[in-house]
Design goal:
Strands 1-2 form a two-stranded antiparallel sheet. By secondary structure, the protein is mainly α. Helices cover 73% and strands 2% of the residues. The longest helix has 29 residues, at 134-162. The radius of gyration is 18 Å and the shape is elongated. The chain contains nine helices and two strands; from the N terminus they run ββααααααααα.
Length: 193
């Protein structure tokens, strides 16, 4: 293991990112960063399910802390928090209004809709007070974030198993293909938003 915590995974030729990267990425994306931690979870999962699961849990812990931080800031300064998150790329007023409507109609349970509708978790965190108390917010955030992170973990764990030999023999090509898949996915997502 290197000083930074990054290692090369024996038998795969892949660099395994340190868990701190997953934690920090989860925290950043829950607040002001706009690229989801699924990327680092997926990369870790290519080298095995244990590595991917550890990264998923690190990203989840970071996301929960980031969501709670944003929640606390929003509870103290709601208008300023909403104004700040609308400056994040690909977060717009229409998203804010949809989430506010969902909180009005569903209460705290609205957060469970976050993973499947293309609206970032940070919007739900910023608008959670007063619809959810901090405990309910964090508790409901666990399944909301897990259901967002699990598909990348599962898909790339299976890809790693199915193509393990090719990944081992061609780590550079794997990295390029991985980057192209995520760049293409983001291009489609951002074009739809």
């Amino acid at each position: 293991m290197s000083q930074s915590g990054a290692t090369f995974v024996a038998g795969t030729g892949l660099w395994r990112p340190p868990l701190a990267l997953g934690f920090l990425w989860g925290l950043a994306e829950a607040t002001l960063f706009f690229i989801i931690p699924d990327i680092v979870i997926a990369w870790a999962a290519l080298s095995g399910w244990r590595s991917g699961l550890r990264m998923l849990l690190a990203a989840l812990a970071g996301a929960l802390l980031g969501g709670l931080i944003l929640y606390a800031i929003a509870a103290a300064r709601p208008a300023a928090t909403v104004a700040t998150i609308t400056e994040v790329p690909f977060v717009g007023r229409a998203m804010i209004e949809r989430v506010a409507d969902r909180y009005r109609s569903l209460g705290a349970a609205a957060i469970l809709l976050a993973p499947g509708n293309g609206i970032p978790y940070k919007v739900y965190a910023a608008l959670a007070p007063p619809a959810a108390d901090p405990f309910s917010f964090v508790l409901l955030s666990i399944p909301a974030r897990l259901s967002r992170f699990l598909p990348a973990f599962l898909i790339f764990t299976l890809v790693g198993r199915a193509f393990g030999r090719r990944i081992k023999d061609h780590p550079g090509r794997t990295a390029v293909l991985f980057a192209l898949v995520w760049a293409g996915g983001y291009a489609v997502y951002w074009s739809l938003i």
